[in-house]
Design goal:
five-stranded mixed β-sheet; about 55% helix
């Protein structure tokens, strides 16, 4: 007893037991209530469909065996005919259908019960009585089939379905009722609830036993997850979850998967631009720093190109910001396709994009940019009744492993600015002051 008290009181074992059993109990109650409600609804739907079918079957049988219209004898309004057949006291069809289906049936002429299978304690059929006023209005006068969850007949509640009855001239002359005792439905629901309670109790016992037996293993895995979260909190978003967690097929495995997904989501939030899915500026600078380090080690060159969509403000002003967002997405998609296998692309800000060509000198990069410019010019973006076409200007410079990235990015930016001021739709690799022509890499670009 002392061992059990020490094991559970004030320990993780006790906490695990409590956070398992209590939530399971609450969850069981909530699920039970939900399931009972759903079960009741399902039963009501089934009962409604069954009663509707029985009503239709009754009308079809009466039409088959007794052709003609319903009418009352002129001298005695309590005598009912269908065609030439006297229906009063003829219960052959109704009793047979009740025997086969267990459903009570009643035929109303106007609002009066003329035929019925409902019998009181004395064995007397409940004929000559009236239907409820709301039933008369809904079914007889409005000519609509109706299902009611509670209709009291001779002191008993029934699930009831009423179907209007028409003669051949289209006149509504009465109603057919099909019903089942509500208490029978309640007994079915109660049996379901009792079974549900027993299942919950059995589950709680089983969970308690398994919790006691598996707590040691669970605690160790909690510590693994805790360590992984601690690494994430320190900004180490590239760590991998312990395989022992990911291999589990229980809640811990799902928890591990969720945390890994959260890790990926955080990385996307930190690294990716929400609109275009490209690397954002903050992460792009970090990735450019990694590129510099790699270039310093392997001695391979890299090139930086800073691009800007021409007349982007005019697109926004003409077509609206929704079109502008679409243009940015399509441009991002094109740039991703272009840079694949060559380096990476960053949304630098607004309509500006930074392309980094790894292991590629400026001459090689310019050839790639020539192809890119052609692709951009060929790009057409349908928007409403219009088609948006684009051009783009770039400033290009070779990266320098001995300079901070902002230095050579500034060089590329100056070249881009020159290209924007002098015609747009071009790639600028040299500025005039550098002594190479007009500073445009290729006038056709």
């Amino acid at each position: 007893m002392h061992y059990i008290r020490n094991k559970f009181c004030g320990s993780l074992y006790g906490a695990m037991f409590r956070i398992t059993i209590i939530p399971m109990a609450v969850l069981g109650i909530v699920v039970s209530i939900f399931c009972v409600n759903q079960y009741i609804r399902a039963i009501r739907r089934e009962v409604k469909l069954e009663l509707e079918n029985v009503c239709n079957l009754t009308l079809a049988a009466m039409d088959e065996f007794y052709p003609g219209d319903f009418r009352l004898e002129e001298e005695d309004q309590s005598i009912l005919y269908k065609g030439e057949k006297l229906l009063t006291n003829d219960y052959q069809i109704l009793d047979r259908i009740k025997q086969e289906t267990g459903v009570e049936l009643t035929f109303f002429y106007f609002d009066t019960r003329m035929l019925t299978t409902i019998i009181d304690k004395n064995g007397t059929r409940n004929i000559g009585t009236k239907c409820r006023d709301d039933v008369l209005q809904d079914v007889y006068r409005d000519g609509m089939s109706q299902f009611y969850e509670s209709v009291e007949i001779m002191g008993e509640d029934y699930f009831s379905y009423y179907e209007p009855v028409y003669n051949s001239d289209g006149e509504c002359v009465g109603m057919v009722f099909a019903g089942k005792l509500s208490k029978h439905i309640a007994e079915t629901v109660w049996n379901f609830i009792m079974l549900d309670v027993l299942v919950i109790l059995a589950t709680l016992v089983a969970v308690g036993y398994l919790c006691f037996r598996w707590t040691d293993r669970m605690v160790s895995h909690i510590r693994i997850i805790q360590g992984f979260l601690a690494e994430m909190s320190e900004g180490k978003l590239s760590e991998e979850m312990d395989p022992s967690i990911m291999k589990r097929n229980d809640e811990f495995g799902k928890m591990g998967s969720s945390i890994v997904q959260m890790q990926h989501s955080i990385r996307n939030l930190v690294e990716r631009d929400a609109l275009t899915g490209l690397y954002n500026r903050r992460f792009g600078i970090a990735k450019l720093g990694e590129t510099q380090k790699s270039a310093r080690v392997d001695g391979m060159p890299f090139t930086v190109a800073l691009g800007d969509i021409d007349y982007f403000k005019k697109i926004n002003d003409t077509y609206g910001h929704e079109c502008g967002d679409l243009v940015l997405k399509r441009m991002a998609s094109l740039l991703i396709s272009h840079i694949k296998g060559k380096g990476f692309v960053v949304r630098w800000g607004g309509e500006e994009f930074l392309l980094v060509y790894t292991k590629m000198n400026k001459t090689e990069s310019l050839k790639c940019l020539e192809e890119l410019m052609q692709e951009i010019r060929a790009l057409s973006i349908p928007y409403g009744d219009s088609v948006v076409r684009l051009t783009m200007s770039f400033g290009v410079t070779e990266g320098d492993v001995n300079q901070k990235e902002n230095v050579f990015i500034k060089v590329a930016d100056d070249k881009l600015y020159y290209g924007k001021r002098n015609g747009r739709d071009q790639v600028v690799s040299q500025l005039p002051k550098e002594g190479e022509g007009h500073g445009v890499a290729d006038a056709s670009v």
